[in-house]
Amino acid sequence: MASLEPRSLWELLxxxxxxxxxxxxxxxxxxxxxxxxxxxxxxxxxxxxxxxDTSHLLHSSQASYALAVSYTYNESEARGRFxxxxxxxxxxxxxxxxxxxxxxxxxxxDPSVHFSSQMVVDWFGKMEVEGxxxxxxxxxxxLDNEIEDLFTATVQGRGVIYVRRNFGRSLPLNAMGSGMSKxxxxxxxxxxxPGCFLLVDEIETGLHYRFYPKLWExxxxxxxxxGCQVLATTHSDECIRAAVxxxxxxxxxxLSYIRLEREGEAIVPxxxxxxxxxxxxxxxxxxx
Length: 288
Prior knowledge:
Blueprint: H1 6-9, E1 23-28, E2 34-42, H2 52-55, E3 66-73, E4 76-85, E5 88-95, E6 106-109, H3 118-129, H4 133-140, E7 147-155, E8 158-165, E9 170-172, H5 178-192, E10 197-200, H6 212-226, E11 229-232, H7 237-248, E12 256-263, E13 266-273, H8 274-282
Parallel strand pairs: 6-10, 10-11
Antiparallel strand pairs: 1-2, 2-3, 3-4, 4-5, 7-8, 8-9, 12-13
Helix pairs in contact: 3-5, 5-6, 6-7
């Protein structure tokens, strides 16, 4: 099991930032509503104070602590803490004045995560129970038209997703490469959790550049059908160009490009619509 110590959980968020100070992110939407998120080291609730069935998950409970979070929407504020439970990391709200629908499910996908994990198997099982497996298979055929079916099998006590290809050949998902595994993870997350907010770091990792347009087409199509919002980062110029090409096959208006620039002590985001991004690419303007 991966380490659940603060250095692996919280401290990565505070890279090159003083952890003794709160980390704040604020935005104002088109209706002039102000939304703010604040994360802060919280040593008042240590892992030692959590129930006995959760504290064993940490390698070193002595140096562990929770992460306090507050979310402000105009004049209302919700407060809670990220803690460690038997199923992993959980956000527990202590004060929640907002309606639940203001907090959609958020899924974060790191490039180092292997999506043949139990999380993906659970998502797949949920889709089977809800009768959505055929929809999933049809979507994946946009990338590989030889896919015939998906199913799970128990191997050494663990659930494993298998891909059955034409002519009856079946392979475990992880044998088809990290790119296919991650694509399935993206599709499963959005289909199993409609309306979710999907965060993908370095979305191009594990895929050959020739597949980038198909990647974006697939992500855009599933996001449109499920009502999900995808925020993906990339350092690849080819991936940015492919986003314009791939998303335009579905609906060009779905794509926005956000560039972060440092202004003094602040990092300021600038948002560009799809047509503005296409214009900049046509004129070979620097975007990264």
